[in-house]
Design goal:
alpha/beta; Rossmann fold; disordered N terminus; elongated; binds magnesium ion; Alpha-Beta Plaits; 6-stranded mixed beta sheet; 14 strands; binds adenosine-5'-triphosphate
C-alpha cells in the first residue's frame, strides 16, 4: 500500500513538473543522527518568476535548496527541476541551474576577474566565451572598477554580487540563491533587491531564493512558501496571503493608560470591531473595514473623554500571516517573540 502511495505521489509531482521550472512533492529529509529537516514539503515554481522560501533558522530552507540543486538526496519524495528528476537526472539539472550557496564561494585572495574565470573553467566554457561573459557580468553588477582587486577588500554587498555573478557565468535558466542578503546592511540589501528583480526581468531567469526576512519575500517574490520546521505552512502571492487575513488592523495611541471601566465593554459591543486589545496606552483592534471602524472607535473614546494621540489603519502584514498560521510572531532571528500582539 505504501508503494502505491509513493507512486501516486510521483505521478502528481511529475504532472506538476510539466511546464514548471521546479516541482516538488512530499519531500522528506532525515539527516544522520535523526534530525528531520523536511517533513513532506511540496511546491511548484512557474518559469520566469521569483519564488521565495521564507522561514526562520532551521526551517529547512538550505536543505530544500541542496536537494533541488542535486547536492543532497531526499529521504523520500520527488522533485523536478527544469523537468528533470533530481535523483535520476542530476547531470542535466546541473547544466541548467546556477547556485549561490548560503556561504560565499568567493575566493578572497583572488580578484573578481579570477573568480569568474575559474568558475567559467569549472563549467567548461571556452576562454573567449568566459572572457566576454566575465566582462558582461562585471558591468552588469557594477564591479568593473573593483575587478582587479582581491575580493577580500570588497564590501559585503560587492562580495555577494560577485557570488551571484559566478552563479550566472554559464547562463543558467534557473538560479538558486540561498539567503542572498543575510548580513548585508539595509542599503546593500535594497540594492541587492533591485539586482535580483532586474535579473528576473531582463534575463528571463527563474529565481528561487531563501530568506528569513519577511520584507524581502514581500518585496521580491511573485509567490512565496512559508516554512516552519520542515513543513509548508502556507503558499501564495504575498498579496493573497495578506488578503487571506480579512480586514484591517487599527492602532490607536491613547493619551492615558487610566481607562474607564466601562470602555472595554462598550468597544466589545461595537459591530465594526472583531477583536481588540489594550496594553498600556496602545489600543489595537482587528476590524473588517478600517475607514468605517476608526471613526466609530474614536467616537466611543471621545464619549469617555479618553485623549487620543494618534491613530493608524494598516493592512495585515506578512508578520500577521505568520502569526495566524504558526501561532507565534516572527522575528529575524527565528526565535519566538511572544503571543499575538
Ligand atoms: N548535514 C546535516 N546534518 C545534520 N543535521 C542537519 C544538517 N544540515 C542541516 N541539518 C539540520 O536540519 C534542520 C534544517 O536545516 P537547514 O539548514 O535546512 O535550515 P535553514 O532553514 O536553511 O536554516 P538557516 O536559516 O539557519 O540557514 C536544522 O535542524 C539543521 O540543524
Ligand atoms: Mg540555510
Amino acid at each position: 500500500m505504501s508503494t502505491e502511495r509513493v507512486r501516486l505521489g510521483t505521478a502528481t509531482v511529475r504532472d506538476r513538473a510539466r511546464g514548471a521550472a521546479i516541482a516538488a512533492g512530499g519531500l522528506m529529509k532525515v539527516y544522520k543522527g535523526g534530525v528531520k529537516a523536511l517533513d513532506g514539503l511540496g511546491f511548484t515554481v512557474a518559469p520566469g518568476t521569483i519564488f521565495a522560501l521564507l522561514g526562520p533558522n532551521g526551517a529547512g530552507k538550505s536543505t530544500t535548496v541542496k536537494i533541488l540543486t542535486t547536492l543532497s538526496r531526499p529521504t523520500e519524495g520527488d522533485a523536478f527541476v527544469a523537468g528533470f528528476d533530481v535523483i535520476r537526472e542530476a547531470d542535466e539539472i546541473r547544466r541548467v541551474i546556477g547556485v549561490v550557496a548560503q556561504r560565499s564561494g568567493v575566493d578572497g585572495a583572488s580578484t573578481a576577474v579570477e573568480n569568474l574565470q575559474l568558475q567559467g573553467r569549472i563549467y567548461g566554457l571556452g576562454a573567449k566565451t568566459t572572457r566576454l561573459r566575465t566582462t558582461e557580468l562585471l558591468e552588469r553588477f557594477r564591479l568593473t572598477e573593483a575587478a582587479g582587486r582581491a575580493a577580500r577588500t570588497y564590501s559585503g554587498g560587492m562580495r555577494r554580487k560577485l557570488d551571484i555573478a559566478m552563479g550566472l557565468i554559464h547562463r543558467p535558466r534557473i538560479l538558486f540563491l540561498d539567503e542572498p542578503t543575510t548580513g548585508l546592511d539595509p542599503e546593500a540589501r535594497a540594492d541587492m533587491w533591485q539586482e535580483i528583480q532586474a535579473l528576473s526581468e531582463q534575463e528571463e531567469l527563474t529565481v528561487l531564493l531563501t530568506t528569513h526576512y519577511l520584507e524581502e519575500a514581500d518585496r521580491l517574490a511573485d509567490r512565496l512558501a512559508l516554512l516552519d520546521r520542515g513543513r509548508l505552512v502556507v503558499e501564495g502571492t504575498p498579496e493573497e496571503l495578506k488578503a487571506g487575513l480579512l480586514g484591517d488592523s487599527v492602532q490607536i495611541e491613547l493619551g492615558t493608560s487610566e481607562l474607564p471601566a466601562l470602555l472595554s465593554a462598550e468597544l466589545e459591543q461595537l459591530e465594526a470591531v472583531r477583536a481588540f486589545s489594550v496594553e498600556e496606552t496602545q489600543l489595537r483592534a482587528q476590524v473588517d473595514h478600517g475607514a468605517t471602524a476608526l471613526p466609530v472607535i474614536l467616537a466611543v473614546l471621545d464619549g469617555y473623554r479618553v485623549p487620543v494621540i494618534s491613530a493608524t489603519i494598516s493592512r495585515p502584514s506578512l508578520d500577521d500571516v505568520y502569526l495566524q498560521y504558526v501561532g507565534h510572531s516572527y522575528d529575524h532571528s527565528g526565535t519566538t517573540v511572544g503571543g499575538p500582539r
